[in-house]
Amino acid sequence: MFTATDSTSPIVDGWSGATISLYVDDPAPLKFRPERIVQSWFEGGRGSDCDCAYCRGFEAAHPADLVGATRCWKEQGKPKITKTHLGRHGGLSLYLPYLGHHPDVDIRTAAGLARAGHNHSVLQRLERIVREAVASGDVTVLHNLVEAYLAFPGLARWRASAKHALRVAENGRLRTASRPE
């Protein structure tokens, strides 16, 4: 079985697109928007806790100031966080440069590169999991990944496409396995 990923989507989602998305594989293969991550932090939730080399490297060079960000958010009246709050003029990007569009172009560029690297690393991890499952013949992990994805709210067409993709992959695997070599 052959698996592949689109190598430009992580870049567009992490850096060059109008809307930033960060990939995660825990609790499921999902894309999170920075504004949701920041809102979760402000409300006492998980927030961003990635330990990949890209996130660690950026955080070491340009650490987040969650105390300052929280103070800024409270001074603004605790609004629901939107991408405008994380924009160059929104205030929060000064405190959370990884999750926003920092006014300094060098920091903004470094953040974009780190996010794109992060997104690629998540896809590489997922691809490794898929390849190992297929090679071992134990595709339970694949079904579990799809079920974890389906447990989250989303558009019906994306949910249907995930189910269909799993069926196509499973049928392809079965056909390939039944062919004489």
Structural features, described:
- This protein has one domain (9-136).
- Helix content is 59%, strand content 3%.
- With 181 residues, the chain is mainly alpha-helical.
- Helix 3 packs antiparallel against helix 6.
- It has a two-stranded antiparallel ribbon with strand order 1-2.
- The model has no long low-confidence stretch (mean pLDDT 88).
Mean pLDDT: 88
Largest sheet: 2 strands, antiparallel
Inertia-based shape? elongated
Radius of gyration: 19 Å
Class by SSE composition: mainly alpha
How many helical stretches? 8
Helix content range: 55-70%
Strand order of the largest sheet: 1-2
What low-confidence regions span 5 or more consecutive residues with pLDDT below 50? Answer: none
Span between termini: 14 Å
Q: How many strand segments?
A: 2
- Total discrete domains: 1
Q: Give the amount of beta strand, in percent.
A: under 5%
Short description:
The protein is built from eight helices and two strands; from the N terminus they run H-E-E-H-H-H-H-H-H-H.
List keywords for this structure.
59% helix, 2 strands, two-stranded antiparallel sheet, 3% strand, mainly alpha, 181 residues
Architecture blueprint of SSEs:
Elements: H1 9-16, E1 22-24, E2 30-32, H2 34-42, H3 53-61, H4 66-75, H5 92-95, H6 105-136, H7 140-150, H8 156-178
Antiparallel strand pairs: 1-2
